[in-house]
Design brief:
Blueprint: H1 2-16, E1 31-41, E2 44-52, H2 57-74, E3 79-90, E4 93-103, E5 112-114, H3 115-124
Helix pairs in contact: 2-3
């Protein structure tokens, strides 16, 4: 009786499949959108980014960090320190805003980006920069 039930259940499940593999999180390809840069005062800069297909806030923060790293290199700074980051998700659109200070010497603080190392990681992970 158990064997017949098992065969019946397997047959029912097989009949329900379409042959298509369901999408999993790793199948999602991020689409990086626009970047707006605002020099606020001195070495304080703000970046607004948007993207689609992010798996979580971490993807948006990585995009913002990549933009900050490249901008720091363009400005001749070796480091960017994250001051504030906000991420919002609305109808499939991810919007991030990051405020960073730029400096040529390690600024200390909780979250500091080494611009050259971060930019290399961004290139290796195909995350666009400025």
């Amino acid at each position: 009786m158990k064997a017949a039930l098992l065969i019946s259940t397997c047959a029912a499940l097989a009949a329900c499949t379409t042959g298509e593999t369901p999408a999993v999180e790793s199948d999602i390809v991020p689409e990086y959108g626009t970047v707006q840069t605002k020099l606020l005062e001195g070495d304080l800069v703000s970046f607004d980014v948007n993207m689609r297909g992010a798996a979580s806030d971490k993807d948006v923060l990585a995009f913002t960090d990549c933009v900050a790293a490249q901008y720091a290199l363009i400005r001749g700074s070796g480091f960017a320190r994250r001051v504030r980051n906000d991420v919002d998700h609305q109808r499939g659109n991810w919007i991030g805003q990051g405020v960073y200070t730029l400096s040529s010497a390690h600024p200390g603080g909780r979250y500091v980006i080494d611009a050259e190392v971060t930019a290399a990681d961004c290139r290796a992970n195909n995350i666009p920069m400025v």
